[in-house]
Structures are given as structure tokens and as C-alpha cells.
Write a structure and sequence with these properties.
Keywords: Oxidoreductase. By secondary structure, this protein is α+β, with helices and mostly antiparallel strands. The protein is built from 8 helices and 21 strands. Helix 1 crosses helix 7. The relative contact order is 0.19. Bound molecules: flavin-adenine dinucleotide.
């Protein structure tokens, strides 16, 4: 008998499996190879501020404190580097935005995250000033998922399969899947119209599009943020993201998305670019913008870790710790994220 079967290995399944292994749980992680999941498309930015609205993310101080430790430990175990702590630069194109930035640094809620104002010595950046977002950075998510998957194989804890809920059979307090018994089943399966054990969940999914471009004349070493962000990927390759759409939830990239991203690019930098890849994915956002974590009322031992929305990289490490404490009976879940706020 094993302690848990984790279904899905995107950002959620990676962080939950990491946290439970740290606590010596015996687990299997099931995932089926899908090239374009939300996590594989994600830009991997973590940022304690909602830059467009000049707001601090819910529990950002607590979350940011565990981000680096969790990802560095996963790097160490898996032998791959994917965490980059170079901070985001917020474009401050005029004296008004510069003043706003300075006044935020006087606000005690923001002060930990509002870094210095710099004058970039890079003619390609259109704004004369940029504000550093302290404690921000990025994770190369595809590298992390594949490195962690290899680590899970090496400890015989990974199975490549799409779990059909019909194959999960309740045996007393336990669950059986293909002759293996588990004490817990943990769904980390991302956005789904209808959940096999939780039914209709209050998702409000958003489609996001990104471009990968080549810009031979541009040399950036920070992520630059304005209407869009421009993220250096190495050489003269950049990721440009991301759009938000609530209407069209097809996984197909659109002309409108491309135009929005290129317009954002042109507002931020003076540089020609050539599009190499254009991708779209669906973020598992929730109606009240908080994750969905907790246990089924109907099926004993069945749990959910989902709804990471647009900020999986920032939220998952801290929430996975709270979730693991909860599973071990050491803590309550935060009511703001407990799935029972919708199902109770
Ligand atoms: C364009 C775009 C840009 C983004 N940029 C960022 C960013 O910069 N920073 C950030 O923090 N977030 C970003 N996000 C959001 C981020 O992608 C999500 O928060 C995160 O990926 C959610 O992870 P997840 O593991 O819950 O879901 P998913 O990534 O959807 O993973 C679910 C996994 O479960 C597997 N699965 C599903 N059903 C089964 C089954 N029955 N059996 C086995 N496996 C199953 C799937 O194959 C998949 O691998 C972005 C999203 C998009 C679309």
C-alpha cells in the first residue's frame, strides 16, 4: 500500500509530490504526455505584485518566503537548474508612472517588493526609467517538469498514464488502481469542465497566448514588463506574453492575440522581431480568483489541489506545504482556498 496517488504532473502535481516526498510519503504520480498543458506553456514568472492594478498578491509575503527554498531543493534533487532570480523590470514610461512607483515604496504593504528605479543603459528600451520588482523571478517550467519527472522515474514513483476514474475502485478506506492500493488520491489535473470526483467546479478559465520571437538587435537581461512582458530566453530569443481572454476557450492561437502581443512589444522596445512560435493555453482560474484545495465530502481519501490560475509558480510551493500539513492533520487549510467554500 502506498500513501498517495497523485494525478497530474503540471506545476501543481510537481510541488505536491515534492512536498509529500520531503515528508517521506510513498507516492505514485500519474501523468500522460500532453505537449501543450497550461504548465508547459506558462512563462514561469513569479511576481508578488499585480502590476497592472498596483496590488500585492494575496499572502505574497508568506509565498515568496518559500519560493526559492522549494525550487532550489527540487533543482538539487533533480540535478537541473531552472530557477532564475533576476528581478522583473517594470517599465516607467513617464513622470506619472515614476511618481506612482515611488509612492508605492512608502506604503508598508508594498515596500518589500518595490525595488529601485533605474535608468537602463539600453537604447532599445523605450522607457527612460524602470522599477525593479524585488523578489520576483522566473522558473523554466518545462525544464522543471521534465527534470522532476525523471527524478520520479528514478525512485519508481512515476507512471505514464491517463487515469480513467472508472479504474479507481474504493476498497474500504483505500483506493485501488490496477492492483495497487493507495490511502489517498490527489487530483492535480488542472482545468477540466467536469471533475470526476468533485463534479462542476467554479472555474472561470482564461485563455492565454504567448509568442516566442527572435530579435537579432535586442539584448535584454531582465524581464521587461509593461502591457506585456518580454522575457529573455537566451541568445536573441524572447518570450512575449501573455493575453487574457474569457470568451474564446479553444486551444488555438488567434490573430487578435498575436496583434495584441506585437503591439505590447512595440510599446516596450525599439527592435524588429520575427515570430518563431505562437502558442495558446487555458489557465485554471476560479470565479473568486483563489485556488481550489481540499477534500471530497462524498469520497473518503479523495483530494484536490487545483485552481492555481495565473500564478501557479508563486502559489504552489507555499500552498503545497499547507496542504501537506492538512493531510497530516497538523493544520487547517486556509478558508480562502478550501474547496468546501463552494461544496459545503
Ligand atoms: C499563456 C499562459 C502563460 C502563463 N504564465 C504564467 C506565469 O508566467 N507564471 C505563473 O505562475 N503561471 C502562469 N500561467 C498559469 C499556469 O500555467 C497555471 O497556474 C499552472 O500551469 C496550473 O498548473 P496545474 O498543474 O494545476 O495544471 P496543468 O498545467 O493543466 O497540469 C495538469 C496535468 O494533469 C494531467 N492530467 C489531467 N488529467 C489527467 C488524468 N486523468 N490522468 C493523468 N494525468 C492527467 C495533464 O496532462 C497535465 O499534465 C500561465 C498560463 C498560460 C496559459
Amino acid at each position: 500500500m502506498k500513501d498517495a496517488l497523485i494525478i497530474g504532473q503540471g506545476i501543481a502535481g510537481t510541488l505536491v509530490s515534492f512536498e509529500l516526498l520531503q515528508r517521506n510519503w510513498s507516492i505514485d504520480v500519474a501523468d500522460h504526455i500532453e505537449p501543450l498543458t497550461a504548465s508547459k506553456i506558462a512563462s514561469g514568472l513569479y511576481n508578488p505584485l499585480v502590476l497592472k492594478r498596483r496590488r500585492v498578491v494575496w499572502k505574497a509575503h508568506e509565498m515568496i518566503n518559500v519560493v526559492e527554498k522549494s525550487y532550489r531543493t527540487i533543482e538539487k534533487l533533480s540535478g537541473e537548474n531552472f530557477l532564475h532570480t533576476t528581478p522583473v523590470w517594470e517599465s516607467l514610461p513617464d513622470p506619472g508612472t515614476e511618481n506612482d512607483w515611488m509612492s508605492l515604496s512608502d506604503n508598508p504593504h508594498f515596500e518589500d517588493f518595490i525595488g529601485v528605479i533605474l535608468s537602463p543603459s539600453n537604447d532599445a528600451i523605450k522607457a527612460h526609467k524602470v522599477g525593479e520588482v524585488a523578489k520576483s523571478g522566473k522558473v523554466d517550467v518545462t525544464t522543471m517538469i521534465s527534470a522532476w519527472s525523471n527524478y520520479l522515474y528514478s525512485i519508481q514513483s512515476k507512471i505514464d498514464v491517463r487515469i480513467d476514474p472508472e479504474d479507481l475502485v474504493q476498497r474500504g478506506n483505500h483506493w485501488e488502481y490496477k492492483n495497487q492500493l493507495y490511502k489517498n488520491v490527489i487530483w492535480c489535473n488542472g482545468f477540466a469542465e467536469e471533475h470526476p470526483h468533485f463534479g462542476q467546479l467554479p472555474f472561470s478559465p482564461t485563455k492565454g497566448e504567448v509568442l516566442i520571437v527572435n530579435a537579432p538587435t535586442l539584448t535584454l537581461d531582465h524581464i521587461l514588463h509593461g502591457n506585456v512582458f518580454i522575457m529573455p530566453l537566451g541568445g536573441h530569443t524572447y518570450k512575449v506574453g501573455a493575453t487574457y481572454s474569457w470568451k474564446d476557450l479553444t486551444p488555438t492561437p488567434t490573430l487578435e492575440g498575436k496583434e495584441t502581443l506585437l503591439e505590447g512589444w512595440n510599446k516596450l522596445v525599439n527592435a524588429e522581431c520575427e515570430i518563431i512560435v505562437h502558442q495558446a493555453g487555458i489557465r485554471p482560474n476560479v470565479k473568486d480568483r483563489k485556488p481550489l484545495i481540499g477534500s471530497s465530502h462524498i469520497h473518503d481519501g479523495v483530494h484536490l489541489f487545483n485552481g492555481l490560475g495565473s500564478r501557479g509558480i508563486l502559489m504552489a510551493p507555499w500552498l503545497a506545504q499547507n496542504f501537506a500539513d492538512y493531510l497530516e492533520g497538523k493544520a487547517e487549510l486556509y478558508p480562502e482556498v478550501n474547496v468546501n467554500r463552494f461544496t459545503a
